[in-house]
Task: structure prediction
Amino acid sequence: MQSIQDKDFDQLFKDAFADAEVAPSRDLWSSIESEIEPKKTRKLPVYWLAAAVILVVATVGILINREQNITKPDKSLVVNKVETKPVLKENQPKEAIKEPVKTEGKVIKVLPIERKSVTSLVKTKIKHTQKEAKQKVATAPEIVKQETVITKAEEPKKDVLKEKIQEAIQPKEEVIIARNGTTVIPDEVINENEQSNKGIRNVGDLINLVVNKVDKRKDKFIQFRTDDDDSSLSSINIGPFKIGKRNKNRP
Amino acid sequence: MKLAQTYTINDLMEGCRAGDRKMQELLYKQTASKMLAVCMRYAKDRMEAEDVLQMGYIKVFQKIKEYRGDGSFEGWIRRVMVNTAIESYRKNLRSLNVVEIDEAYEQPSTGFDFSQLGMQDLMKVIQKLADGYRMVFNMYVIEGYSHKEIAETLGISEGASKSQLSRARTILREEIIKMEGFGYAIYTG
Result:
């Protein structure tokens, strides 16, 4: 009956479809792509997560900062008090430098005149002039220590030299005073560093701790100014984008 | 397509395994035409076939880690497509409109050159088959499933599978001969 056996008939179809191709319409891939989208996003979350964390941290920081400004205006005053102290100490030595220089100039002018009288007149008069010099010199520099004044007075002949020596010596003393003034600022810095070691009291401390370990740069990727029970965003450093670098000597 | 030629199918497979979107697209572009031809055999029309193709590729990209490397990758994709087509058929399980053909056509006594038939002609007649017949015919003849496997997969008896295959063959013959009427035109004319 059948001209072709089932086997051959089947083979005909098999062969025909073995390499069969039918071009699909073009928009098929885009719909497949959109269907597999959620799977593809597995590669991205690292970046998205990082971005999200930055965003959350930044917004939280800003919000906390705002709250801080509203609820705790006292804190800035406290900071001012602490920070103005070194300024006063710095001013003191500067004044001390200026005043002795001026008074010394006067002394120099006074003494040579008296020396002329010493050479031309009797020795007793020299003693008087010495006493006069004593008084004059002693009254002039109020701030300068008495010891130096005395040495000036007792040996008026060598006064010029001595004063030059003292000029050389005094600045050293002043430098030491000035150093005492400046050493206050490093102390502050140390205190601030110690703050971060006191433990984690708030979110800012936590983030600072993490960032300090991860980011070894001077200007951290993100940094919070932390205080007793609150913290605020202090600085951000994302490559070219930097904001709010810490001002240590705010007035 | 030309870009895809620089990658072997295994390169594409590795890329797809890593979730590389570009490699997925290249794999699709390189294999879609063949796979659509597979889907077309199981579908009633092109629209349905492309739906199956789309679902099939989504499965391919989702299940690519399950491909162990035994057998060709293309063969594996083809199996995914066939399974998707069968699944789709079972989901929509339209009533097996096994339309018995009343007119018992007398089989043409003389054979004619079936080899002259093109793939597209055969595709047409296959798509004309009732869904159940088409499933069984495709699975048995083209994919090489056994009647037992077909019975298990489609949830029918082995006997039903056998009889449906037989009916499918008969209908196909008739349709081919009817088609363009050249069967009689050549040999009886």
Notes: The first helix of chain B runs from residue 9 to 17.
